[in-house]
Amino acid sequence: MRDLFPVLRVLGVLMVFFALSMNVPLAVSWLWQDGMWQAWPASMLVTAVVGVLVWFFMRHHKQELQPRHGVILVTLVWVCLPLSAALPMMLVYNQMGQDLSFTYAYFEAVSGLTTAGASVLSHLDTLPVSLNIWRTFLQWIGGMGILILAVAIMPLLGVGASQLFRAEAAGPVKDTKLTPRITGTAKGLWGVYAVFSISCFLAFWLGGMTPLDALMHMFTTVSLGGLSSHDASFAYFQSPLLEAIAFVFMVAASCNFALYFVAMRKGNWRGFWHDPEMRATVGVLLLGGLLVALLLWVKGIYGPLDALRYGMFNTVSVATTTGFATTDYLTWPVFAPVFMLILSGMATSAGSTGGGIKMMRMLILFSQARRELTRLVHPRAVQPVVLGGRVVDNRMIFAVLAFMLVYGGTIVLLSMVLMLTDLDPVTAFSAAIASVHCLGPGLGSIGPTSSYATLTDFQIWVCTLGMLLGRLEILSFLALLTPAFWRR
After folding, report:
1. Which residue in 226, 303, 337, 362 could disulfide with 117, CB within 3.0 to 4.6 Å?
2. DSSP string covering 101-129
């Protein structure tokens, strides 16, 4: 249990830092006079006081963080920070004279920070603007990862920062030092993220959105989160131009941000275009969108241009785990929404803001399968798994196989638990997949035109667990449950 002490010290600092982020909705509430400004200082104070107290009692535990500490801290951050994020939501609803249960508030906060984009709230168009800003801003800070942001800007975390970075980053990027110091790598990634964010905001604004809508939808586009300030989601705007802008940024954000950083730093984009994972990601997104568009045209659902517009946008939105919708795609031929749901598991790169399995793991699995087929024909052949001209270490292959086994088991287990509560199989299975992929909308009663409010409280908690497992990439969380982890 002594491993918890240095972790709690850093967690206390992060809570103070997280409290400061509430200045964003506070400023919006004050400027737009939505009448809810009292909720934000109160939430900020509670979060900061708790953080200071935790830090104060653990301040003497300054030992360097080890890899095991990184795993514990990442898990605690993604479980505990939603508690703070949920508090202002409940206070705002209380000021509105309505009741928002803790279950709903925590689910909404987890959905925001994990960039899942699932929601239990309704009448979004009439919610106080500060609350909508907070919901979408949570996705923006959760997109690149709040711990990576902390490593980038907080000198206090300079000692042991590499362990936090490796525990938080997804896929192979966790072992990549883009700069001599890990803090420089974190700053670089967030720098690219900031450039994307500013560009996306300006594009939405110039494309016809109001400044507030442009800000909120920028938050949820570059983070591939998909929450909206409108019940109709992206269909509210009815603008092919805005859809095209969102399409471009969703595809861009689904690629590895480390590649952008290296290309911008060196002024050479050759390595970016030659990266096998990037080419596979973009190729799957574009070909998948074209396939759905072709199906919609052949089936006579839309004309050729509308089929291309709706097919490409909604397929890419779901496949990148964003979750924006411009129409109810559950009314399309059943192949389309199921195909889109399957794509959400693989069509984002490691080091991107998207969820799911990550394209890198899929490429490793395909290469390993090809190697095993070759061995059946040529048992003595020596054929290493190669990606991008580099041999993939067998330890990484074994890690991918272990991840896929646990991933599949998690999907099945969550689905069975949901069906045990009498939820229909289609909704249960899609809810499990959408939660673990951090996607948001699923099939059945949680489609793009409905919300998770149709589920019971227990079912919502199951989906909340799924989102946390998906954001933690499952293995990190499960490692904490093993006795061997705590005996070391």
Report:
1. 226
2. -HHHHHHHHHHHHTT--------GGGS-H
